[in-house]
Each structure stands twice: as C-alpha cells, then as structure tokens.
Amino acid sequence: MNIHVKDDVSAETLAIVNELKSLEGPLLPILHRLQEEFGFVPEASLPLIARELNLSRAEVHGVVTFYHEFRNHPAGKHTLRICRAEACQSMGGRELAEHACKVLDLDWHETTPDGKITLEPVYCLGLCSVAPSAQLDGELHGRLDRDELSALIKEARA
Ligand code: FES
C-alpha cells in the first residue's frame, strides 16, 4: 500500500467514524460503511476505529473476524453466492456448494488467484420455492444443477 492510499484510508475512515459514532452500537455500521466504500475493511482502519470508539484493537479485530461478511482484501470481479440455508440444502444445495468449491478450487470467502471470482455463502435468497439457488453478482438463479452452475462459472471466468 503506498502512502497516498494509506492517507485516503485514514481520512475516509475518520470521516465515516465521525459521521456514525453517535449511533448506539456504532461499530457494525462503521464497518459496513467502510466495506461499501472500499470493497473491504482495510487493516489500517482498525486502530483508528479503536481509538475513536475507545475500544481496544483486539475488540475491533475480533468483531471484524467474527462476522464473515467483512473481508480484509478486495473481492474478485464477480461474486458467486451459493445459498446454504435449509430449503436449498434439502434440495441439493449441499452438493451444489461442494461442486462450486471444487470447480473453483476455493473455500468460502476466497477469491480465485486471477481475481475473477469470489465465492460466498448466503443464507436464503428468497428463492426457496425454486431451490437450490445461487446469485452471480446481481443475478439470481433457481433450480440450479451442477452443469448450470458450471456454465455460470465459465461465463464469469470468460
Ligand atoms: S433457502 Fe435458499 S433461497 Fe431460501
């Protein structure tokens, strides 16, 4: 990270903290906003947040790592979300998830080395009646089988 990027992160972090710190329980809203701004929660933001909210660095770090939706590095160009909630699990979602991990050679929350695809679990996409389902970027897909999922992955990799 060069010094300018670091300055930007610090300035943006402080602006966000100042805007949200009067909320009750401001830490999660601050982390969500940082992730919206940067696509991830920068490591350099954590000590600033701790100082401004009067928390220890360990407390802030603990919250970031507890909630899997927070990432500490940028996401890939595409995000593939596989539903892991009950209705999908009972309709083949587990096999679909295993297939995605195998084809991409990724574990959850990881990104392919070429930076193209990030794999995320999601817990219900509102498509339970057409389970199993997944989402590629903003697009929802129901009644997916392995071949269709492979085709989606191929499309994202192209
Ligand atoms: S459980 Fe998968 S979409 Fe609802």
From TrEMBL:
Cofactor (UniProt): [2Fe-2S] cluster
Cofactor binding description: Binds 1 [2Fe-2S] cluster.
Signal sequence interval, chain numbering: none
Alphabetical list of InterPro entries matching this protein: NADP_DH_HndA-like, NuoE-like, NuoE_N, Thioredoxin-like_sf
Domain of life: Bacteria
MF-aspect GO terms: 2 iron, 2 sulfur cluster binding; metal ion binding; oxidoreductase activity
List of residues binding [2Fe-2S] cluster: C83, C88, C124, C128
Gene3D superfamilies attached to this UniProt entry: Glutaredoxin, NADH-quinone oxidoreductase subunit E
Record's keyword annotation contains Transcription: no
Keywords assigned: 2Fe-2S, Iron, Iron-sulfur, Metal-binding
A Pfam family assignment: 2Fe-2S_thioredx
Family stated for the protein in its record: Belongs to the complex I 24 kDa subunit family.
Family annotation (NCBIfam families): PRK05988.1
Protein name as catalogued: Formate dehydrogenase subunit gamma
Organism listed in the record: Rhizobium setariae
